[in-house]
Amino acid sequence: MKERIIPTILVGGSGTRLWPLSRELYPKQFLPLVGKGTMLQETLRRLDGLDGCTSPIITCNANHRFLAAEQLREIGSEPAAIMLEPVGRNTAPAVAAAALFAAKYDGDPILIVLPADHVITDQPAFRHALEAGVQSARDGKLVVFGVVPTAPETGYGYIRRGAGKGVYKVDAFVEKPDRATAEGYLKSGDYYWNSGMFMFRASRYLEELEKFAPEMVTACRRALEGAAGDLDFTRLDHEAFSACPSDSIDYAVMEKTNNAVVVPLDAGWSDVGSWAALADLHPADANGNVMVGDVVAEDARNCYLHASGRMLAVVGLEDYVVVETVDAVLIARKDRVQDVKTIVKRLGAEGRSETLLHRKVSRPWGSYDGVDQGDRFQVKRLVVKPGARLSLQKHHHRAEHWIVVRGTAEVTRDDETFLVGENESTYIPMGARHRLVNPGKIPLELIEVQSGAYLGEDDIVRYDDVYGRVEEKA
């Protein structure tokens, strides 16, 4: 019987170092930063054709569930489960829940644990490393993939290899070193960067976790037993999972087990942990500049220049990162890009929405773009997918005007339902129950003008929703 291999994709994290492109509700794993697909999509695509590889288990939080589901649908990937964590508890519990799910529904497969926000540029080398890891996982080993270092990086943890050939016993996990120590690691050839990618049988991971953190296994088992189905999602029980200790796979298992092995990985790996790291993944022009979007550069050298919506023009810059989005612009020296997280923390403390989402916001039914806003009014551009419908809802503090610019809208307003065509409009009074549906075969585009004393997204009462958001506020 062919060995079954289940990719377990970790889709957590907020990617604050890549702000303003990466936001809390639309983080870097859902962005097409390198290549045509998003980082999540590319993570799954690089497993295409791997012998025995089956449908993936996706773990993410509830805020990202529709993004994950839509991006999987776009590439034709049918997940075995999209598991929703009610609270963040780091990687060890997330993988424990996936292993318990796999053991329950699929016997005792091998799990490939992959973060969704890494880049691999050498696919054949990556595949070769996976194939080497499979054999060790079959033999009951817990495999970690160690990236062959190319520089004395101080921002990564390291793995010191022991005896072996091709696959090595893990001698030690080492914390992030200082510069001099990292240079020694690089020179010795016995150290690898800890990639955070793993492979093992579901049963072996659970056995080792039971040995070192039994309370974690108990909490995850209870969370899965109490899980509720929600459309295509599996919601882990909130109370049980919240009681679970928080820890990484490294600390909870890999640093304690006697069965850890490391497979060297020399495949153009990057965790895209900063704008400087992203710049290194793109081809530069003759002046060393990486330019994305509509960019005009004069007397600029060694810069990363990214325009999302408008023309970006720079003059006389060297070693800078400039990133433009519709609602925010970042300007930073390359040697200070790690401090972007400080800006994000400051904006969050001030309650600024720019840390959470973009002006254009994705929803399961489509998207909306905040075009303009002022005292007691707000203008949005809505795009509703063919066949999609918004929830039946009402607002206490605002009225809405809808003008259809493309397609046909089916509108429910209190007790009446009617169609609104292109160049036609309708009015939704404050307090009226209403719903918007796209009954057509093309996207429905309309302009929504809101007016009232309070225009926040939390002014919403849902009565019915095909996406299971009746009890939510946004």
Task: Offer a concise description of the structure.
With 474 residues, the chain is an alpha/beta fold.
Provide the gyration radius in Å. 24 Å
Q: How many distinct helices?
A: 11
Q: Give the structural class.
A: alpha/beta
Strand order of the largest sheet: 20-21-22-29-24-27
Q: So what's the overall shape? A: globular
According to DSSP, the number of beta strands is 30
Mean pLDDT: 93
Residue share in β-strands: 25-35%
Unreliable segments (pLDDT under 50, ≥5 consecutive)? none
Tag the structure with descriptive keywords.
474 residues; alpha/beta; six-stranded antiparallel beta sheet; 11 helices; 30 strands
Task: Itemize the secondary structure elements and their pairings.
Blueprint: E1 5-10, H1 39-45, E2 57-61, H2 65-74, E3 81-85, H3 91-106, E4 110-115, E5 119-120, H4 123-138, E6 142-147, E7 158-165, E8 167-174, H5 179-188, E9 191-201, H6 202-212, H7 214-225, E10 228-230, E11 233-235, H8 238-242, H9 249-254, E12 260-265, E13 269-270, H10 275-280, E14 290-292, E15 295-298, E16 304-307, E17 312-315, E18 320-324, E19 329-333, H11 340-349, E20 360-363, E21 366-374, E22 377-384, E23 392-394, E24 398-406, E25 409-413, E26 416-420, E27 425-428, E28 434-437, E29 444-452, E30 461-464
Parallel strand pairs: 1-2, 1-4, 2-3, 3-11, 6-12, 14-16, 15-17, 16-18
Antiparallel strand pairs: 4-9, 5-13, 6-9, 7-8, 7-9, 8-12, 10-11, 18-19, 20-21, 21-22, 22-29, 23-30, 24-27, 24-29, 25-26, 25-28
Helix pairs in contact: 3-6, 3-7, 6-7
